[in-house]
Design brief:
CATH class of the largest domain: Mainly Alpha
Structural class: alpha+beta
CATH architecture of the largest domain: Orthogonal Bundle
Strand content: 5-15%
Largest sheet: 4 strands, antiparallel
CATH topology of the largest domain: Topoisomerase I, Chain A, domain 4
Length: about 190
C-alpha cells in the first residue's frame, strides 16, 4: 500500500477513535442513579468573574451510592456553586447546610430508566453516523487517488481496510451501548 493510502487509513482510524472517545464521555454523563462526580462536569461557577469548573474551587466527593458532597475552599462560594448547579439543570436540587452542599440522587423510576436508555441510544446513533461519515470521506479520497491513476486493486484493498475499521468501531459503539443499558436498567 502506498504512503498516501496508509495515511488515509490512519486518518480514518484516528477519526473513528475520536468518535468512540466522544461517545464514552457522553455516556459517562448519563447517570444511572448512582452518584458520580462526572455529573458536575460542564457546570461552571462564576469565580471572581471567570467561569470555573466546580472541581477547581471545591472538593467533590461521593459519600455513598446516592450522595455527592461539595465542600468549597472558600465559604463565600457556597451560594454561587448552588446557583450554578440549579442553573445547569442536571435534575438535582442542591442541599446547602452552610458548610457543604450535598446532592442526593433520586431513585430512578422504570420510565426514567427507559428514557435514559433512549438517550444513550441517541448518543450511540450519533457516533455511528460520525463513523460512517468518516468512512465515506476517506473512501472518497481513495477513489480520487484511483481516478488520478492508482491501481484499482490497491484502491479496493484500501477501501476494504477502511470498511473493516468502520465495522470494528460500529461494533465497539454497540458494546458501549449494551454496557450502559445494562448499567441503567440494573435496579
Amino acid at each position: 500500500m502506498s504512503e498516501e493510502l496508509k495515511k488515509i487509513s490512519t486518518d480514518a482510524e484516528n477519526g473513528m477513535k475520536k468518535a468512540i472517545n466522544h461517545l464514552e464521555i457522553e455516556l459517562s454523563k448519563i447517570r444511572a442513579g448512582k452518584a458520580s462526580p462526572s455529573i458536575l462536569e460542564g457546570v461552571n461557577v462564576d469565580y471572581y468573574g471567570t467561569p470555573t469548573p466546580i472541581s477547581q474551587i471545591a472538593n467533590v466527593q461521593v459519600l455513598d451510592a446516592r450522595t455527592i458532597s461539595i465542600q468549597p475552599w472558600e465559604k463565600n462560594m457556597l451560594p454561587l456553586i448552588e446557583r450554578a448547579i440549579m442553573g445547569a439543570n442536571i435534575g438535582i436540587t442542591p442541599q446547602n447546610d452552610g458548610v457543604n452542599i450535598r446532592l442526593f440522587m433520586p431513585p430512578l423510576t422504570e420510565e426514567r430508566r427507559k428514557e435514559m436508555v433512549k438517550k444513550a441510544g441517541g448518543e450511540g446513533e450519533q457516533s455511528k453516523v460520525a463513523i460512517r461519515n468518516i468512512r465515506r470521506d476517506h473512501i472518497e479520497q481513495v477513489k480520487k487517488l484511483q481516478k488520478d491513476g492508482m491501481s484499482e486493486d490497491i484502491c479496493k484493498g484500501a477501501e476494504d481496510t477502511i470498511q473493516g475499521l468502520t465495522d470494528k468501531h460500529i461494533a465497539l459503539v454497540e458494546k458501549h451501548l449494551e454496557a450502559k443499558e445494562k448499567e441503567i436498567m440494573t435496579v
